[in-house]
Amino acid sequence: MSNDTQTPAAASTDGFHLVIDALKLNGINTIYGLPGIPITDLTRKAQAEGLRVISFRHEQNAGNAAAIAGFITQKPGVCLTVSAPGFLNGLTALANATTNCFPMILISGSSEREIVDLQQGDYEEMDQLAIAKPLCKAAFRVLHADDIGVGIARAIRSAVSGRPGGVYLDLPAKLFSQSMDAAAGKASLIKVVDAAPRQLPAPDSVQRALDLIKGAKRPLILLGKGAAYAQADADIRALVEKTGIPYLPMSMAKGLLPDTHEQSAAAARSYVLPAADVVVLIGARLNWLLSHGKGKTWGGKDAKTWGGQKFVQIDISPTEADSNVAIDAPLVGDIGSCVSALLAGIGSGWTKPSAEWLGAIAERKNKNLAKMAETLAKDPAPMNFHSALNVVRDIIKANPDAMLVNEGANALDFTRSIVDMYKPRKRLDVGTWGIMGIGMGFAVAAAVETGHPVIAIEGDSAFGFSGMEVETICRYNLPVCVVIMNNNGVYKGTDVNPRGGDVAPTVFVKGARYDMLMQAFGGVGVNAATPAELRRAMEEAIKSRKPTLINAVIDETAGTESGRITSLNPTAGKK
Ligand code: ADP
Ligand code: TZD
Ligand code: MG
After folding, report:
1. For ligand 1, atom 22, which residue shows the shortest CA distance?
2. How much is the pTM?
3. Residue 315 CA, closest ligand 1 atom number
C-alpha cells in the first residue's frame, strides 16, 4: 500500500474505487450528497462507475433523502458529505434517522488525522467521529484501504439489523488515494449476508400475548411506522381482519391497510384510546405521540395517571417495553415473525370482538366522518385548509400509488386527518421529532426510489427549510408536485408586534409567490386561489410528471398555534 495519488495502474485499485465497489457489491446504487474536498472525485467516479449520484444544495436535504430511502427500501440510504461543516449539516438528518429508526449511512470525508488530533488547524478540521457517536447507532472510521470492505459491511449491518438507525462512517482524505493490488482489494470486500436477520419471538412470549388478546373485551391494535417499515403488509392485514380487532394507524402507518377500511378506528381515536382494555402495539412506541400511554388521552384522571389498559408490544428492541407504562406482554422480534406467530396461534376458533365494542366505535366514527364530510363540502373564500385538502384527498384517492410528503403544523395535522392513504409506505412526514425541513429531501428520494409521482404538502414555513432543492427537483426532472399551504407564516399570518416596527416572529411576507421559485429553474409554477384552480394544477402535474410548485393561497386566519399540539406550548392555556 502507498499514498500514491496518481491514477492506479491496471492491476491496482484505490480507496475511491474500493468504496464504490463495496457499495455496489451490497446493492447500494444511489448516493445522495454534496461534493467538495475531499469527496468531489468520489462523486465523479461513483457516477462513472454507474452509481446514481443525486447532488443536493444543502447536506441536510441529502441526509433526509438518504434516511427516507432507507425507510422505503429497507436498505441503508447513503449520504455523502465533505468534512466539518458539510458533516454537521448532514448530522441533523443522521440524528433524525436514528430517532425514527430509519437505516442510513452518513459518509463524510475528513481532514488529516494527524493534524486534527493535534488540533493544528487543518482545512475544515473537526473530530467528526467523536461528535457523531452520541447521535447515531454506530460510528466507524477507516484508515486503510484494505479495511474499506469491513467498514462498509459494518456500517450496513449496523444500520439495518435490530432496530434500524443511522450510522456514521468517517473516511479521511488520505484513504481515497491509497492504492492497493486490485485482486487483494477485491478480496477485501464483503458482501453482507443476511444483514437484518429475522428474529423469532419466543413461543412463551407469543402465548402470553395471545392469552391477553383472547381475554380482551375491548381490544385495539395500534400500527406504527415500524410496522410500515417491516414490509409484512399481508400478514398485518390478515391479523387485523382475522381477529376483527379495530385498529389505529400512526401517521406513517396510514395506508398499511386502506384508511377507508371498515376496521379503522382513526375517526374515533378519542373514544377508542381510553375505552380499550387491551392494546396491541405493532412497531409503535408509547412516546409523546401517544401521550406516553397515560393521561386523559387514555382515560387517566391526570397526565401522570394510567388508564388501566393492558399492553402487548411487538418490537425488535428488547428494551422498548416499560419505557412509559408497564407492558404486560412484550413480544420481541421482527414484526413479520411476530405477527405470523400470532396469526398461527389465533387458529380457527377465534371469536371476534363484541358487537357492543364494534358498534360503539362505528357510531362515533360515522358521526365524525359525517361531520368531516360536511366541513369538506364547504367552499369558503378565501380557501382554507379543509377546502384545499379536500382536493388533495381526491387526488390521492385517484392516484393511490403517489407518494405523499407532508410537513408543517396545521398543514401537517389537517393533511393527516383529511387525506386518506390506500397503500403502505406512501405517507412520509415529520416523524418522531416533528422536525421541519424533511420536505424536499424526502420528495427527491421518494421520486428517485419509487418512480411514482410525489405530492409534497408543505406549510409555507416548513417549505422554507429545504426550499432551494426545487432546483434539484428541476435538475433531475423529478415528478414532484409541491403544494404550499400559504397562510403567510408559522401557524397563521395574523400575529402583530405590539410595539410596531418589525413584523411578528411568526409572520412572513404577505401574498408571497412561491410558485415563481419553481419557474426560476424551468419547472411549472401555479398560483391557486380556489380549490378548482388547485385541482386543475394538481391533475396536470400528475399527468405531465413535470416538476411543479403550486402556491395554494390559504386564509391567513385559518390555522391554530402549533396545529394539534398546542398543549405542548409552555404557555398553553395561560394567555
Ligand atoms: P410511530 O411514530 O409510528 O408510533 P415509532 O417510530 O415510535 O412509530 O416506533 C417504531 C418502532 O418499530 C420502534 O420501536 C422500532 O424498534 C420498531 N421496529 C422497527 N422496525 C422493526 C421491525 N422490522 N420489527 C420489529 N420492530 C421494528
Ligand atoms: N425547527 C425545526 C427544525 N422543527 C420544528 N418543528 C420547528 C422549528 C418548530 N415548528 C413546528 O413545530 S411547525 C413550524 C415550526 C417552525 C412551522 C409551522 O408553520 P407552517 O405550517 O407554515 O409550516 P402552518 O400550516 O402555517 O401551521
Ligand atoms: Mg404557514
Report:
1. 334
2. 0.97
3. 26
